[in-house]
Amino acid sequence: MSATLLWLRQDLRLTDHPALQAAIARGAPIIPVFIWAPDEEAPWAPGAASRWWLHHSLTALRRDLEARGSRLVIRAVGSGTAAGSTLEVLRALLRETGATAVHWSRRYEPAVVARDRIIKDTLRNEGIEARSFNAALLVEPWDVQNLSGKPFQVFTPFWRRVSADLDPGKPFPAPRSIAAPAKSPKSLALDALDLLPKIAWDAGFAEAWRPGEAGAAANLDGFLDGPVKGYGDRRNFPAERGTSRLSPHLHFGEISPRQVWHAAPKWRTSQFMAEIGWREFAHHLLWHFPQTTDAPLRSDFLRFPWRKDAKQLRAWQRGLSGVPMVDAGMRELWHTGWMHNRVRMVVGSFLVKNLRLHWLEGARWFWDTLVDADLASNTLGWQWCAGCGADAAPYFRVFNPDSQAEKFDPEGVYRKRWVPEAAAVGGARGRYPAPIVDLKASRVAALEAFASLRK
Q1: What are the tens digits of pLDDT across the range 216-241?
Q2: In CATH, what number is assigned to the domain containing residue 334?
Q3: Cα dihedral 374, 379, 381, 386 in deg (nearest 10)
Q4: Which end of the chain, C or N, has fewer beta carbons within 10 A?
């Protein structure tokens, strides 16, 4: 039987990989290929932090494939060839290798879904076995409906429905070897994709993360060995290592939610697994309401009186708002490519309610700076903060960053780490700026703006 192209995307692992298992079952050589085509994902092409992670994840995957007798083939749309689309790259590979099948793992972003449908239909019409598989979710978005036969828009009943009879199959083990063709097609060097920053701002990323399947497994094991036991109580304290930090590994498919489910049987009804459920909910919403990446789910928010203030936006982005808890979060983000979830809510509320700047400004900044930038989760999170999405925070919930700091960083450990100059607050402020907005007055203004939507 002729070879199978294993088209890799956000499924950069060998364990629990349905598309790979189906390719192995064909009994033919397998050609793993990664195609870099960011323009096909516009306007949400991978940001700078995501590209950093992708480079290192592909490095790890390439090493894992070579250990099993295989080789990663890297191609890029428009890179030194006449190929102007992923479809053309796949067709070229099919001609070069004589392969008769293409397998891949599904993605759920609107632009990618539309592209993949065209690819699948075209290849099938040309006599190619084109198959896609679920490798990223516990349940497919189209398989869950409320009692009215419609998509869920509230998390609690969604997760109650999903988790009530959830029984994902056991994860597939990684293959010991992968059959390679007699001659592998040409590949670009990974460096040719130009994923890494030209200015070395990524030192903190390397200190904080270990991209790749082995790093994902180590992160999960470390979490289940300790922090998960106090997750319900300690997950809100940003100075502690109380969360799993699995989000970038899940986004890039270095570990599957099915692996997490089976590795943590004692915690299937815990708050930790509910966070996995929140990720499922985000993909459910993105699939059913694809317009929400750029527009509010609640149409009345189209007339919300957002402000525009480039100076305040820049201060927020740089961690120079003059509000220590907000600035600590934004600096943690810049240094590590990640931010504690409690602090994400605080900085998000500050942007959309105290500053009343558009939630898309926050979504775009997070998209470029987060190593776990996931379109479904990013969209859900920012529309939740703004009050304009599904299961959104009520309009009157305006997080007070000072109160949040007192409650969840009572000793100031987190703030002192990221904003050491703020220790002078109360006396001489030194180099630390004054707050760019009055928290009480801006809260009142926000409530008045939200109230205007009900008139």
Answers
A1: 999 999 999 989 998 988 999 999 99
A2: 1.10.579.10
A3: 160
A4: C
Residue 303 shares a structural domain with residue 442: yes
Tell the burial category of 410 from Cβ atoms under 10 Å away from its Cβ (0-12, 13-18, 19+).
exposed
How many angstroms separate the CA atoms of 448 and 321, rounded?
23
Residue 170 DSSP symbol: P
Instruction: Answer whether residue 200 is part of any domain.
Output: no
Based on the number of CB atoms within 10 Å of its own CB, is 450 exposed (0-12), middle (13-18) or buried (19 or more)?
buried
**Containing structural domain, residue 255:** 136-169+209-288
Of the candidates 385, 400, 401, which has an alpha carbon nearest to the alpha carbon of residue 301? 385
* Same domain flag for 436 and 304: yes
Residue 188 lies in a domain: no
* Residues with active-site annotation: 275, 278, 306, 341, 359, 382
Q: What is the pLDDT of residues 168-192, one digit of tens each?
A: 999 999 999 999 999 999 999 999 9
Range 409-412 contact pairs with CB under 8 angstroms and sequence separation of 24 or more? 409/237, 409/238, 409/239, 409/325, 411/239
Reported as a single tens digit per residue, the pLDDT across 370-392 is 999 999 999 999 999 999 998 77
- Whether residue 219 sits in one domain with residue 324: no
End-to-end CA distance of the chain: 67
CA-to-CA separations, 14 to 108, 166, 174, 273, 277, in angstroms, rounded:
21, 24, 5, 23, 23
The answer to whether the predicted template modeling score (pTM) of the entire model surpasses 0.85 is yes
For residues 450 and 442, give the distance between their C-alpha atoms in angstroms, rounded to a whole number: 12
In a domain, 55, yes or no: yes
Residues 267, 228 share a domain? yes
- Of the three residues 288, 317, 349, the one that is the final residue of a domain is 288
Rounded Cα gap, residues 212 and 61, in angstroms: 7
Examine the fold and report which residue of 268, 288, 308 is the final residue of a domain before the chain moves on: 288
Structure tokens at 295: 């527009």
Q: Are 90 and 7 in contact (CB under 8 A)?
A: yes
